[in-house]
Design a protein that fits this description.
By secondary structure, the chain is mostly beta strands.
Length: 131
């Protein structure tokens, strides 16, 4: 805020892109930051004339033309994981059967497989497992 509304602002950020993401153009459309107790919003638009900043937000919001970058990933995984929808098991039982209070343990089992054009680099059906 010390360098006024009309001054140039510089912001650097990192966008993590895993190796299994598809190759292509990636862009950031908006970022929020928290400096001290004040919140700032950086808006990146294709056309900045479409977004108007209210006068009371001129020191909190900034806009600029959105840019993109082409990223070539080494193991793009375009094949979706498969789930056998005919083989899903659900087991539910109360956590306290002697004095039920509505709390229930639910176990859901599925059979899934993950395929990829790059063996050993699958995005991961293991992400379906929750504890």
């Amino acid at each position: 805020m010390a360098n006024e509304y009309e001054s140039n602002k510089y912001l650097e950020t990192y966008l993590p892109i895993p190796d299994y993401y598809p190759s292509g153009y990636y862009a950031i459309t908006m970022m929020n930051s928290l400096i001290s107790w004040k919140s700032y919003r950086y808006l990146l638009c294709k056309d900045t004339s479409d977004y108007h900043i209210a006068s009371y937000d001129k020191l909190k919001q900034f806009k600029d033309v959105r840019d993109s970058i082409y990223v070539q990933t080494p193991y793009p995984d375009y094949i979706a994981p498969e789930i056998d929808v005919n083989n899903i098991t659900i087991i539910a039982e109360p956590t306290n059967p002697e004095a039920p209070n509505g709390e229930t343990r639910v176990d859901i089992s599925v059979i899934a497989r993950d395929l990829s054009d790059h063996e050993g680099q699958e995005a991961g059906s293991h992400l379906l497992v929750y504890n």
